[in-house]
């Protein structure tokens, strides 16, 4: 009996390993942004800025996207003259994470982590002032807009990526970034500056780890076979159970590259997950026991879902 259970477990593990052995990107939105903007030889790629609040945010929440953007290649340059990355990625961290007086240490840890995640020197910055790592403080949205504006303009940024209005962990510093980017977009709308926020999920899906990646791949298959059905209803053995109709309907629109213009999804594979772990290893001052649990169980080490921030214009 124990042997059978072990055999089944091994098969399931091998299947999960296979399913998660390749990354997946629904990046049509970014591709269209790249197509829509005006190209010149000095600026042939999309300039994407990751805006974070603390050193380690980039590993804990955004690694699937950073690693994904580094892998997405297109024909770029004049008349598709060379094959290269779709995007140049920049990183701006608005505080040094100095809540415990470790600002300088955390800044050098961030440098090392961004090396692992592929964000080059000269394209990454940390601000010492005016924002400070504080779990009880919201940062002023207008001041954020004012601080980030020069980085946007000097580096001809096309796309800003940051937290959403719930900040993944509800940290007020994270939430402030979304408000700051909205303030920037509404103050000085530049035709081609767009911003996307990382979707905060409910508590349970947030801690599903590698299973979140498996669910995303399963959902994609369901959407191909049985579009817009409840996730479990699509399993043949469950078809007869009516109460399953209360389960959430699979949101298939996000997989439809022809229709989606305001969302993107990055799903890591095992090698990318391991790279994110190595990057997190650089944040030695932060590696207390519960962060290891986080890395094991967090969905954000595997899946990043993005939604565009829409600014109402009057
Ligand atoms: Zn943070």
UniProtKB/TrEMBL annotation:
Q: What is its EC number?
A: 3.5.1.89
**Molecular functions per Gene Ontology:** N-acetylglucosaminylphosphatidylinositol deacetylase activity
- Key words, A-Z: Signal
Provide the top EC class.
hydrolase
**One GO location term (cellular component):** endoplasmic reticulum
The stretch of residues making up the signal peptide is: 1-21
What highest taxon heads this organism's lineage? Eukaryota
Quote the SUPFAM superfamilies the UniProt record gives: LmbE-like
The family note in this entry says:
Belongs to the PIGL family.
Q: Which PANTHER family match?
A: N-ACETYLGLUCOSAMINYL-PHOSPHATIDYLINOSITOL DE-N-ACETYLASE, N-ACETYLGLUCOSAMINYL-PHOSPHATIDYLINOSITOL DE-N-ACETYLASE-RELATED
Q: What is this protein called?
A: N-acetylglucosaminylphosphatidylinositol deacetylase
Organism of origin: Sanghuangporus baumii (Phellinus baumii)
């Amino acid at each position: 009996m124990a042997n059978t259970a072990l055999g089944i477990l091994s098969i399931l593990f091998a299947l999960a390993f296979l399913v998660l052995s390749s990354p997946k990107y629904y990046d049509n939105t970014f591709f269209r942004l790249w197509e829509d903007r005006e190209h010149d030889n000095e600026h042939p790629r999309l300039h994407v800025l990751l805006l974070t609040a603390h050193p380690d945010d980039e590993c804990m929440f955004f690694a699937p996207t950073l690693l994904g953007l580094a892998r997405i290649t297109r024909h770029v340059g004049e008349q598709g003259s060379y094959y290269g990355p779709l995007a140049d990625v920049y990183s701006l961290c608005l505080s040094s994470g100095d809540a415990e007086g470790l600002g300088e240490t955390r800044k050098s840890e961030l440098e090392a982590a961004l090396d692992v995640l592929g964000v080059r020197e000269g394209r990454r910055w940390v601000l010492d002032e005016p924002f400070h790592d504080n779990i009880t403080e919201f940062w002023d949205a207008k001041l954020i807009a004012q601080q980030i504006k020069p980085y946007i303009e000097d580096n001809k940024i096309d796309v800003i990526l940051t937290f959403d209005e719930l900040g993944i962990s509800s940290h007020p510093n994270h939430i402030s970034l979304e408000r700051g980017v909205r303030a920037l977009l509404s103050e000085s709308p530049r035709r081609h500056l767009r911003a996307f926020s990382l979707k905060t999920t409910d508590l349970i899906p947030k801690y599903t780890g590698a299973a979140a990646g498996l669910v995303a791949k399963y959902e994609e298959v369901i959407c191909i076979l049985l579009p817009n059905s409840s996730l479990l209803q699509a399993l043949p053995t469950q078809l007869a159970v009516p109460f399953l109709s209360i389960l959430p309907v699979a949101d298939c629109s996000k997989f439809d590259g022809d229709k989606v213009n305001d969302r993107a999804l990055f799903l890591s594979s095992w090698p990318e997950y391991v790279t994110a772990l190595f990057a997190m290893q650089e944040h030695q001052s932060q590696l207390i026991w519960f962060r290891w649990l986080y890395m094991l169980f967090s969905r954000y080490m595997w899946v990043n879902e993005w939604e565009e921030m829409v600014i109402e214009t009057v």
